[in-house]
Amino acid sequence: MPEQITPALRMTAVNRAYHDGSRLVTVLDGLELLVMPGEKVAIMGSSGSGKSTLLHVAAGMDLPDRGDVAVCGQSIGSMPEPQRTRFRARRIGLVFQDYNLVESLNAAENIELVCWLTGTRAEPGRLNALFEKLGLEGLLDRRPDQLSGGQQQRVAIARALIHQPALVLADEPTGSLDQSTAEQVLAVLSQTVSELGCALILVTHSDAAAAHCDRILALRQGRLGDRNAGCSGRLARRRLDRAGRRSRCSRSPPIGPDSDRPIQPTRARPRSAGLGADHPLAGPGTNAAAGIART
Ligand SMILES: Nc1ncnc2c1ncn2[C@@H]1O[C@H](COP(=O)(O)OP(=O)(O)O)[C@@H](O)[C@H]1O
Ligand SMILES: [Mg+2]
Questions:
Q1: Which end of the chain has fewer CB atoms surrounding its CB within 10 Å, N or C?
Q2: Distance between Cα 48 and ligand 1 center (Å)
Q3: Cβ count within 10 A of residue 145
Q4: Ligand 1 contact via 16 beta carbon (within 6 Å)
Q5: pLDDT tens for residues 169-190?
């Protein structure tokens, strides 16, 4: 019998509703999603359609009212909160529109924070390879306020990938960047995710960004469907042409200045100062309550 491959993410009949005053607003309504290891899926949809909610539920930061969410075959809804937070920290990488770097830590410390939170240790070889891939050599001792937006997002991507998660969830990761920087950051995110074999779910409004993915889905009325369903053949073709033209223009980011000495990952446990209880990386299993900025 052929060996069964465990999906990186399986969302089954997921429902999530919120109270808006006395009104109950259903955001996810019987949503189904299957993402296999190494697969890249773009999710598009109008503002307020529930894209961030979907990612929060996929990451176990928010629980569905009904339905099941399994990451790497493990149902996260049934885990007690500290276990779910630890599981998320180990198996999931998160990238946000506004980077969410800790201002008081330098780039290397921000990245290593994940290892500290998960109690893991990244091999120096892997750290160096990742920094090089993301063009971060020479920037590692800079604090976020000494980095451009594109550089900060590359640090955030390194932080999301350093522990080789099975699933990377990116919520409009280039929403704060200009078009050319956005293209560079996306190209490097997409390429690095492929090289590491992670599955990626990319929430985006951009056709060019979505073109980096294997599948493009649209979130409408609480469910996922084919992005081009319901639009004319001509509009669908125009969208594909536009996305193709833009993605052909994409280039890898410039690699930072070569350093003579090998990059030394900081060994010291990063100062926890600045990692407030509302920081997305924090959680009960990591000494603080989980939270996430909505975009
Ligand atoms: N914690 C919450 N409490 C109440 N309503 C929420 C909450 N989170 C999201 N919503 C509502 O759910 C809907 C979808 O939000 P969101 O997932 O952020 O959409 P998108 O990311 O697609 O813009 C919005 O109407 C939003 O106001
Ligand atoms: Mg959002």
A1: N
A2: 6
A3: 8
A4: no
A5: 999 999 989 998 999 899 989 9
